[in-house]
Design goal:
mainly alpha
Length: 107
């Protein structure tokens, strides 16, 4: 059974990373937090998305695992090859993380 994420971990995953840890989209913007990623992916053209997500690699999943430290989301995204599905999974996890991080404030 996967361990439950703490409010502090959720807040850290949602926080903005240092510039040197940012994700550089091929011929596109720079991503420095999870919250902006769905909008940026939605605005990408298909070639940009496929450059980062294809049968050989998933750069977003790697960045989320290695830099943001969210293995659960990384594993879910590794299975996604369609942009809309990718965005839906991201939005769902961001909402879960927001709710979890807010639990710390209410406790």
């Amino acid at each position: 059974m996967p361990k439950k994420i703490t409010p502090a971990e959720a807040k850290r995953i949602l926080s903005t990373v240092r510039p040197q840890k940012s994700f550089w989209v091929n011929n596109g913007p720079i991503v420095n937090n999870l919250k902006t990623l769905p909008k940026i992916i939605n605005e990408m053209n298909d070639a940009q998305f496929m450059y980062h997500v294809n049968k050989d690699k998933n750069d977003f999943s790697d960045w989320i695992r290695d830099i943001l430290g969210d293995k659960k989301l990384s594993n879910e995204l590794r299975k996604c090859k369609i942009k809309k599905t990718f965005i839906d999974v991201l939005k769902k996890r961001i909402e879960e993380l927001r709710k979890t991080s807010q639990n710390a404030k209410e406790a």
